[in-house]
Write a structure and sequence with these properties.
With about 500 residues, this protein is α/β, with parallel strands linked by helices. The chain contains 13 helices and 25 strands.
Length: about 500
């Protein structure tokens, strides 16, 4: 038996992120994948601000930002005319240290994560296929098949299924995957294009019921193009080429496709599994939820599944928390997955609805509305929060408690840099920590010292109040940087009660 603490099936972004966060916290992992190497196509494109905030914990955010492409603006076209120009750079300047939409193709992204994992002395075991597993109560055994046909049995404390929408592990545990498949067929291509105006900006074009999204991912005329396949052509997608799909919306952009580097078709699904956890097995990423690509949320959501689970697995494996802590993974992430599917479903339905009225709204009303709304600061910030996933909260979680200012347990800690003091700097540590904006009393300092919990005190500033924080209140942060407890009185008794009720210890 080859033993490990966590066996990860699937080395896409979700599995790689899980392996990195677990290894960084001292948890032993094996990560396998049946493919021979990282993906070679650019599939998922957007890396959202919240993901970059987590990457800062691994000291890899700067590397990803430097390698990616900050989309400066989005242009909306209808019937061959530009109807709106929406600036995207610094859209969330007061919300996140990463206030932009970053395009970083998944193939490059995966290679970066693989290299980061390699620096932690963990290699992805390629051409190794998951066959089956058994939950033994205190551990799991998994049968793995190698390239030469030899099988081995691996014993692990926990099993993490990051094995995609067709997840064999999900099928084995019998978890449902409720939802459906949209009838429309889509195509995706990586192309070299000229004549894009302005060059290097995203273009979203409608022509009646056809649409196309053109997204740059370098500054050298490389674009991802996504569109819809209509009529009888959609009945035989296996025979389609780029030349076969409708080009009305593309022609409306007045551009020339100089070269098609990759082309594929796909159908969009919207599903959420019944159980994110089954005993010692966990479902993450596409194995747990799939949805429309609207808003570039899929890959980011999978990575956040991984980060949510990683610190909880580590705490349980180290004896710092009971097994019941792991139930909060499903409670927190399943609720968000349902909400995300509902949101992207509405956007998808709007973009693909057929009929004269739908065409009129998309081609005439929507561009004007978007252009006007985006000029209003509050609307612009709200849109950034939604897309960037910085608005995600866990208010209903058993790990969330209290409220101070407008910040409550389960919220993402507001980013509030003041006079060079960035309150996100301390979040590079994957640990429980306490923030005080104002002054901390001696009891709190002693409490944190005794339990080896970092205490970060920030001199009060009006900008903290603007961010929703309360002077002298306690903000207890989870290892994944979400607010666990907010307490206006700054009471150590409240802190003690929080950990005692959840049976979490800090000095094991």
């Amino acid at each position: 038996m080859v033993q490990t603490e966590v066996l990860i099936i699937g080395a896409g972004p979700t599995g790689l992120a899980l392996a990195i966060w677990l290894t960084k916290q001292g948890t032993k992992v094996r990560i396998i994948d049946k493919s021979s190497g990282p993906g070679e196509t650019s599939r998922a494109m957007a890396v959202q601000a919240r993901t970059l905030e987590f990457y800062r914990q691994m000291d890899m955010a700067d590397e990803v930002v430097a390698a990616g492409y900050k989309t400066p603006a989005m242009n909306m076209w209808a019937r061959g005319k530009r109807q709106a120009h929406i600036k995207l750079l610094d859209a969330g300047g007061d919300i996140s240290p990463y206030p932009f939409v970053l395009v970083y193709p998944q193939d490059r992204h995966e290679k970066t994560l693989v290299e980061r994992l390699r620096l932690l002395n963990v290699e992805v075991e390629r051409q190794t296929e998951f066959i089956s597993f058994q939950d033994k109560g205190d551990y799991v055994t998994a049968v793995l098949k190698h390239q030469d046909g030899q099988e081995e049995t691996c014993e692990a404390k926990y099993l993490a299924a990051c094995d995609g929408a067709r997840s064999p592990i999900r099928h084995q545990i019998g978890s449902g995957f409720e939802g459906g498949t949209y009838k429309q067929l889509f195509y995706v291509a990586d192309v070299t294009a000229s004549g894009v105006d302005p060059a290097g900006e995203a273009q979203f074009a409608f022509d009646k019921s056809e649409f196309v999204l053109l997204m740059p991912y370098t500054s050298t005329n490389q674009y991802r193009i996504i569109g819809i396949v209509r009529d009888e052509r959609a009945e035989h997608p296996e025979n389609l080429t780029f030349e076969d799909v409708g080009h009305e919306a593309i022609n409306g952009l007045h551009i020339t496709i100089d070269k098609v580097n990759w082309f594929s078709t796909y159908r969009v699904h919207h599903r959420v599994t019944d159980n994110f956890r089954s005993g010692r097995a966990f479902l993450l990423g596409d194995a747990a939820h799939v949805h429309s690509p609207a808003g570039g949320q899929g890959m980011n959501t999978g990575i956040m599944d991984a980060i949510n689970l990683a610190w909880k697995l580590t705490a349980v494996l180290k004896g710092q928390a009971p097994d019941s802590l792991l139930d909060s993974y499903e409670q927190e992430r399943q609720a968000f997955a349902h909400k995300l599917v509902e949101t992207t479903d509405r956007l998808f339905t709007f973009a693909t609805a057929e009929g004269g009225f739908a065409d009129f709204v998309r081609n005439r009303i929507a561009p004007i509305f978007m252009s006007l709304a985006y000029r209003i600061e509050n609307v612009r910030e709200y849109m950034f929060r939604i897309v960037s996933q910085t608005t995600l909260s866990y208010h209903e979680s058993p790990l969330s408690s209290g409220k101070a200012g407008t910040v409550q347990g389960g919220d993402r800690l507001p980013w509030a840099p003041v006079s060079g003091a960035d309150n996100y700097e301390s979040l590079k540590q994957i640990c429980w920590q306490v923030h005080i904006y104002g002054e901390a009393n001696s009891d709190l300092k002693a409490w944190c010292d005794q339990r080896n919990i970092p205490l970060h005190i920030f001199a009060w500033d009006d900008l903290h109040h603007k961010a929703g924080l309360e002077k002298n209140a306690i903000y207890l942060l989870r290892p994944d940087t979400y607010v666990a407890l907010a307490d206006s009185l700054g009471s150590v008794e409240v802190l003690d009660k929080y950990f005692r009720e959840r049976e979490i210890t800090l000095n094991v």
